[in-house]
Specification:
Residues 132-314 form the ATP-grasp domain. The chain has helices at residues 34-41, 58-61, 75-88, 99-112, 119-126, 128-137, 151-160, 248-260, 293-301, 305-313, 387-399, and strands at residues 26-30, 46-51, 67-69, 93-95, 145-148, 165-169, 179-181, 195-199, 204-213, 216-228, 234-240, 266-275, 278-285, 327-332, 338-339, 343-344, 354-359, 366-367, 378-384, 402-403. By secondary structure, it is an alpha+beta fold. The protein folds into three domains: 26-117, NAD(P)-binding Rossmann-like Domain (Rossmann fold, 3-Layer(aba) Sandwich), CATH 3.40.50; 144-199, 2-Layer Sandwich (Dna Ligase, domain 1), CATH 3.30.1490; 201-403, D-amino Acid Aminotransferase, Chain A, domain 1 (2-Layer Sandwich). Strands 13-12-9-10-11-14-19-17 form an eight-stranded antiparallel beta sheet. A four-stranded parallel beta sheet has the order 3-2-1-4. Strands 5-8-6-7 form a four-stranded antiparallel beta sheet, sandwiched between helices. Helix 2 links the parallel strand 2 (46-51) and strand 3. The radius of gyration is 22 Å and the shape is globular.
Length: 404
């Protein structure tokens, strides 16, 4: 990788009608976390939340009359719930920023003929095999892959291709059940259902945060990934530095990937590995990256991807401003497994540069091995003007955090 000037071309989307400050839209927001909920509400439009009962938060509960509940796994009842609400008070846009909400939002938007996540792009991104088929059809990846449903097919793939290989469920998130098989004697995972097996991509891992309008793409930031956990594949940190950029050739490849997955509008999150002159795709999504990468982007570049995407789907003209050149990092704690007998942390009175934190441990808790993203036990976000200051702040928080 080498430094280059990021694309800062202003992009605009045509609007169907002019909007005044009092011209509010009615947004159907699917499955938001409280942070996404707050961001969308702050845009000044009317918001109806559609989520599952187990995901409804206390903050969203107090919005009496504008919260709908449904099981996202049952699409007919979900569509009927949204359609009934649309007949009563019509929606102007359907929005989601979470992995499990993207597919339902795209289906509802298509069924009601409303602006929302593109259905084809969403279906391609949600299924890891479809993603590789789309990218492979444009000759953008040389890694072998196959859809498998049992260990017999996995064994045959290993016989046909060189180790190591990566095995994962086709639609899982958060590094769940991801395994690397390095040697012939490695234990095979318990495959049940639809899985993906593919060649292992060597190199350093990054993600590319993009924003698209009418098929024109802007690379907003490149995020360095820090991996750990028992498998070495769990994301335990993310860092955005202004000097971390793509070469022109790699940026062109990235935009071709976005074309292949048919992403035309909104936020993109593409995970890659780079080794020398080779770039390989890990995953791509037509939504913001998890682990609050959207907040890292905003702190480091000043670009608010969530607000831009909301305004875009509401028919407003948007532009991607030139990025600021600051640093931001998310760090997740990694603790030894076992019962918690002592814990202390600096978050009772955090420093002003701690922009977010989560602490979930209490005395007596049993810390399990970190096998996926759902076994993490809190983390924090800091920002800084340069890389040296950023590392100092991360080290200070880690030094002041003690768990035994």
């Amino acid at each position: 990788m080498r430094p280059m000037t990021r694309c800062t071309t202003c992009l605009t989307m045509s609007v169907k009608r002019k909007m005044s400050m009092s011209d509010k839209r009615h947004i159907l927001l699917l499955g938001p976390t409280d942070d996404y909920f707050d961001k969308v509400v702050a845009c000044g439009h009317h918001v109806t939340v559609l989520t599952e009962p187990g995901r409804l938060t206390a903050r969203q509960k107090i919005r009496d009359g504008v919260t709908l509940l449904a099981d996202f796994r049952h699409f007919p009842s979900l569509l009927l719930r949204a359609s009934d609400a649309h007949q009563h008070t019509p929606f102007d846009a359907v929005i989601s920023f979470t992995e499990y909400g993207m597919e339902p939002a795209a289906m509802i938007a298509a069924a009601l003929n409303l602006p929302g996540p593109d259905l084809r792009s969403t279906l391609i991104c949600r299924d890891k095999v479809r993603t590789r088929e789309a990218v492979g059809a444009h000759a953008l990846s040389a890694l072998p892959f196959a859809a498998i449903t049992d260990n017999v097919q996995l064994t045959q793939f290993i016989a046909d291709h060189a180790l190591p290989v990566v095995v994962k469920p086709r639609s899982a998130t958060g590094s769940q059940q991801v395994a690397i098989l390095n040697h012939p004697g490695d234990a095979l995972p318990a495959i049940a259902g639809d899985w993906l097996v593919e060649g292992f991509a060597p190199g350093k891992e990054y993600s590319c945060e993009t924003f698209s309008v009418n098929g024109r793409h802007t690379l907003v930031a490149v995020t360095e990934k820090l991996l750990g956990g028992t498998s070495g594949l769990v994301e335990v940190g993310h860092k955005i530095l202004p000097q971390t950029t793509l070469t022109p050739a790699f940026e062109q490849w990235l935009f071709q990937v976005l074309e292949a997955i048919e992403l035309k509008n909104g936020v993109g999150h593409t995970e890659i590995k780079i080794e020398g002159d080779t770039i390989n795709l890990i995953e791509c999504h037509n939504r913001p990256g998890g682990d609050r990468i959207w907040q890292l982007v905003e702190l480091a570049t000043g670009i608010d991807l969530i607000t831009l995407a909301t305004r875009l789907l509401c028919g407003e003209a948007v532009s991607v401003p030139p990025p600021q050149s600051r640093c931001a990092a998310m760090t997740y704690f990694q603790f030894q497994p076992g019962p918690v007998t002592l814990s202390s942390h600096p978050f009772i009175a955090p420093s002003a540069w701690v922009r977010w934190y989560e602490w979930t441990l209490k005395l007596g808790d049993e810390i399990a091995p970190m096998t996926d993203s759902f076994h993490r036990h809190g983390g924090f976000i800091v920002d800084a003007d340069d890389h040296f200051e950023l590392n100092q702040r991360i080290a200070q928080v880690l030094h002041e955090t003690v768990v035994r």
